[in-house]
Amino acid sequence: MPESVSVSVSVSVSASSDGLWSIGELAARANTTVKTVRFYSDKGLLPERTRSTGGHRRYGGEALDRLRLIRSLRGLGLPVPEVRRIVDERAGAQGALEDAVAGQLRTLGSRLTALRWQEAALRLVQECPPDERADRLRLVGALDTPPSTAPLARFWRAWLPPRMPAASRTAFLEAAVPVLPESPSPAQVLAFARLCALVSRPCTPDTGPTQPAAHHTAGARESAVLYAGLAESYDLAAHRIRAGDAPVPGEALDCFVTTYASVAHHRDTLAFRRGLARQLSADPRLDPYWDQVARLTTAEGARPEPTPGTAHDWLLAALDTQLASA
């Protein structure tokens, strides 16, 4: 009796006389359920070899390897359309697999970044004093998931001179719009939330900064010269700031003033520098923006990196220093 039972079990999981398996036999060999096999068959991912006289699916031995591959790919989180491309021999399996894995890694990276931002935002709310929680919730609740710097870019595009060349505009945006950290601290989440709130406010003479005087007369050529020169002078000033140097006249200030003189079609004279100092002191200030950028881009415990805003302030202070001794 024990021997006959053993033979019966062996027959139940082996191929029938025609060398094909039923859906149940294939599911047993793959250690999965009939429902799973039927699902992939209905999706066209696991075609049967034939049908029995009773209309039941029959599978060949190659179906087992295909089913195992499908389950492995699905276990990695790949969607059914990507799995179809990979298991389809005509699509070129190697290239399809590499593309699908790379795409899934990008998707997971985006999800992980969003989760890290959500975790930091929750910690921000949890760790702040109770009387500040409503304000924190309002700020972080307005952020996109995952976070996006698109609102900052839109703000600057509207603020820049309207006839500014595309290449110059792109270069400025790369400097003005910060790169978001993948694993932010609660303080960095707060800084970014405040940045987004800042740029979402209406920009009118009564409620916020408008364009500086140099924008009003800047055509395409002038705006390109203006922002290329400012970028160079800011870089020079940033080196001095990192070195801890006090704001004094020098190469950085000369580059800064020469840029404005070129745009104004004026010689760089002492009188021009005095007028420039008055003009720049009356220009709208964007200090809150640059303050938050410094907080956002500085890791905990690290020294803040110079921003275009801090470089601009250093240059203005250097100009005031020079004029005071002239």
List keywords for this structure.
three-stranded antiparallel beta sheet, 326 residues, disordered N terminus, elongated, 16 helices, 2% strand, mainly alpha
H-E order: HEHHEEHHHHHHHHHHHHH
Q: What form results from the Cα inertia axes?
A: elongated
- Provide the structure class: mainly alpha
What is the beta-strand fraction? under 5%
Would you count the extended β strands for me? 3
Task: Measure the end-to-end span.
Answer: 114 Å
> So how many helices?
16
From the alpha-carbon coordinates, what is the Rg to the nearest angstrom?
33 Å
- In the predicted model, the low-confidence regions spanning at least 5 consecutive residues are 1-13
| Major pleated sheet | 3 strands, antiparallel
Helix percentage range:
55-70%
Task: Order the strands across the largest sheet as they lie in space.
Answer: 1-3-2
Q: pLDDT average, as an integer?
A: 87
Describe the 3D structure.
By secondary structure, the protein is mostly helical. The protein is 64% helix and 2% strand. The chain has helices at residues 2-12, 23-29, 34-42, 62-75, 80-87, 93-127, 133-141, 150-159, 166-176, 186-199, 213-216, 220-242, 251-263, 270-282, 287-297, 308-325; strands at residues 21-22, 50-51, 57-59. It has a 3-stranded antiparallel β-sheet. A hairpin with a 5-residue loop joins strand 2 and strand 3 (57-59). The chain is elongated. The protein starts with a helix and ends with a helix.
